[in-house]
Amino acid sequence: MKVSLRKANALQESLNEAIKVNPRTESEVDVLNFDMWKTEINNVQHRYFEDVRSKLEMVESRFAIRKEIANHNTLSGVTDLLGELAQVDSMITTIQRWILRQTVRSSDEVLEKKRMRRMTQAERADYDGYISMDVSVIGKGDHDHWNERVQELRRTKASINDQLLELNIKTQIELPSQVVKILKKENLI
Asked: Fewer CB within 10 Å: C terminus or N terminus of the chain?
């Protein structure tokens, strides 16, 4: 059975959710309700372990699908695109954190006036404190430049996401017959 990478991923996630569901059989027996309690324990134990074996088959099927997805992601270029996408995201975050979220320096004219006022204040005879005037190293032009760079990176990110969507839909994988059998048994296909 052939399915797209997107469908295969959805199937492996469905299997993962099915694995998490409690077994149909309880793991305990109230022995006070049965005259033949030893036989009942054996019967319930058998059914319980069958349920667990079924879950283990789902685990095997899930990872068989996952291996196929990984293989086809590499062959189709999805893995490379995911790497590029992660790089672009990291670049956007870095620029935002270290440039765009920082204070933007005032114009030189404004800074000159503020600086002169501070200097005058410090030269007064009655002033006895510490004086400082911290100024951001990021000017308006720098901020605008890096803001444009983030916009470019967002366009690149959108393009990569479009390529990924296309590859995830058009790339087909063949599910092994044993996996198909388990998926049908669990009513996932």
From this structure: N
